[in-house]
Every structure is written in C-alpha cells, then in structure tokens.
Amino acid sequence: MEKDNQKLQRTMTSRHITMMALGGAIGAGLFKGSSSAIDMAGPSVIIAYLIGGIILLFVMQGLAEMAVRNSHARTFRDLVESILGKYPAYFLDWIYWKMWVLNIAAEAVVAAIFIQYWLPEYPIWILALSVSVIVTVINLLSVKVFAETEYWLALIKITVIVVFIIAGLLLLLVTFGNHTAVGFSNLTKHGGFFPNGSTGIITAMLVVIYSYGGTEIIGVTLAETKNPEKVVPKAVRNTLVRIISFYIIPFLIIVSLIPWNEVNGVAESPFVMVFKMIGIPGADHIMNAVILLAIISSMNSGLYGASRVLYTQAVDGLIPQIFSRLSKKKVPVYAILICTSFLYIGVIISLFAGSKTFDYLMGSLGYTVLFIWLIIAIAHLKSRENMPEQTSGYKVKFFPYTTWIAIITLCAILIGIIFTTSIIVTSITLAIYILITLTYIFKGRFTKSKRA
C-alpha cells in the first residue's frame, strides 16, 4: 500500500486530461504517419480513419463506464483485473508500457527529422538526444507543471489544425488572385477513390490504429484526477469529437489538394506541403514548428503514461519498490528515469537506422494499440456481469451492441493486418508478447515457491 506521503496527488482537472488525451493522439501518427497511410489507401484513407474513429468511440465509452463503476481504480490494471483476472491485466499493463516507451523513442526520431528541416547539417541522433532531454526535464517537474505544459502544447497544435482546416477549405473552394479553386477532383483522379482496393484500407488500418492510440491514456490518469467518476466521462465526450474532426477533415483536405501519389517519398509532412501552397511567407516554417511542438507534446504524454504504469506495478509489489518512490514534487522519479532510458535507446537505433527508425517502430506499435483496445472492449463486455444495474452515473447507450461491434471489427482488422504487414514486424511483436507471458508464468511460479 502507498504511504500518505508517497501517494500521487489528485491535481489534474477535466481540461488537463482532455488535452492530455489529445496530446497523446495528435502527434507523429497524424503529422508523419499521414504520408504512409495515404500511400497505402489513397483518398480512401478517409474511410479508414472514419472506421478507426467509430471503433475508438465505442472503446472509450466502455472505458469511461468502467471508470465510473470503479472510482478507486488508478490505472487500466485496476479496471481490468477485477473483471478479466490477473493475466489479462498484467498483459495489458506491460503492452501499454511497451507501447509508450517505443512510441516516445519513435517520436524523438520524428521530432529530429522536423528539426532537420532547419538544421540539415546536424545528424538525427544529436537532435533526437536534445529533444529527449527536454521531455525528461518536463516530466521530472511537478504533475501540475507537467499538466499545464501539456495543456498549452496541445492547445497550440489544436489551434493550428483549425487554421489548417480553414486555409485548406479556402484553397479547395475559393478562387482568389492567381489561385484557382482546386475542388475535389483529386479524390477520383490517379486511380480512383480506392486506388489500391480494399487491401489498401486494411493495410492502412495499422497506421490508423497507431495514430489514434494515446487517447486511452485517460485510463492511466485516474489516480491523479479530481473526481474521476465525473471528469473521465466528460473528457471522453470532449476528446472523441475533436479527435475524429482533427483527423478526418484534415485528411480530406490533404488528399483533395495534393494528388495522393505525390505525398509519400517527400521528406516534409503533407501538412507543411499544404501550408506552402497557401503562399504566406514563412508559413511552412510556422507549420513545421507547430508539428515539432505537437510531437514533443505527444512524447510528454507518453512518458507520463509509461512511468505511471511502472509506479503502480511497484506499489503493488510486482516490480522493485524503488520505482514507487516519489520526489518532493510528488512524481515517480525513478519510474520516469527508467522509461526515459528507452528514449536514448531510440537515439542509439537512429544512429544506425536514421529516419527509417520511425517506420520500423510504427508497425509494432499499431499491433499493441489494437490489443489494448481489444482487452478494454472485452473487459467492458463482461463488466456488467454479476453487477447491480446502475441507477445513476455514466452509462453506455446501446450496450452490448456497440461493444460487440468494436470487438468484431478489431478482430477483423487484426486478421487483415497479419496478412498485409511485414513478417518481421509481426514476428518481433509476437516475440515481445511471448516474453511478457513467460515473465508472468515465471513470476507466478516464483511466488508459489517462496510461499512453500
């Protein structure tokens, strides 16, 4: 159990965790991964993101309902363990931790790529190292400072995405000066709306699921959120509408303005390409700076999520107690530092792989987000068994139909991804999952032998 002076403090409000969820989900997956998704699916990438958004809606509704039912929960593990048992909760905890530590490593490299837009003479690993140090320092400050930093970083990128949408719609629909309205003809040119058929959409789903991943970080903030039973459902409602809007509309604008087959293979983000088309002096530099802040914001959320998983594992005696120690600022300093070490492993990988590091890591991360959502959905499906019907509080409408739709769709996507993804990415991910399972089995046997 936690001692009073070693407890995390409930200092985060609804606006903090709403922006944190946006910070986690609007990052490299949107700004860098967009090129890969468009290359795979063409204009039909819009359909892929719409399907992903609907699944996300159903999964997050279930998460919110479980949080309301279990107001004492600190993270996913507390929500899932009482419903599905110890192994699914253990597996979820560790794949979630693995997701974030790999994600922050990948995003450190992506941040370095965007910095290279201004500093092409500097190698990626030096720039990635600089970003890693900044994110570490932010997380070692108090939770309130971290939450405020994340709030304003997320607000900046949301504001710029809104500006991007307005500017993009003007370019599409309005003729002015030397500019002629582009219209929507690019959606059906160059091979049609489905240039790569249904296979293109299925393949793109891995990037889509990865891009939306991070929203579920709301489930890790429970121990540091005031009145989570009220705040979490509100944050879920606020977050989902914005995320779906900030993905689907920008993608519609990108594939309408730029022929889909001209997006991939270009070093800069499609968002920077569109801002260049506007013709405002320095617009591409402004957008590049905002994307950089967005990625740092996503890394910020990721390091928070990963460190809190380690903290609760240590508090419950599942890993060494040192990771449960808090600093004077009430942050789990050792948990943060061990998670930060993976940032520097990403830096080392980038020393050899350079800009391809992100592509190597993104496939495994997509699998992990998919499994996280699947476990949450299954837990929600079983959460109402042997429990009294709620008379008040947040409740998912159309249960269990929405949850079943999420589970069946995620399973179908999983099957499709297995057949369309690199065997190397699939094999590495499977090996990691087997390792997590083996550590659970070994821990159980070790605990029994100690008792005996």
UniProtKB/TrEMBL annotation:
Keywords: Amino-acid transport, Membrane, Transmembrane, Transmembrane helix, Transport. Its main location: membrane. It comes from the Bacteria. It is found in: Membrane. The chain crosses the membrane at residues 46-68, 100-119, 125-147, 154-177, 197-219, 240-260, 286-311, 331-354, 360-378, 398-417, 423-442. Residues 16-441 form the Amino acid permease/ SLC12A domain. One of its GO terms (cellular component) is membrane. One of its GO terms (biological process) is amino acid transport. It is a multi-pass membrane protein. Pfam families: AA_permease (PF00324). This is Amino acid permease. It comes from Paenibacillus anaericanus.
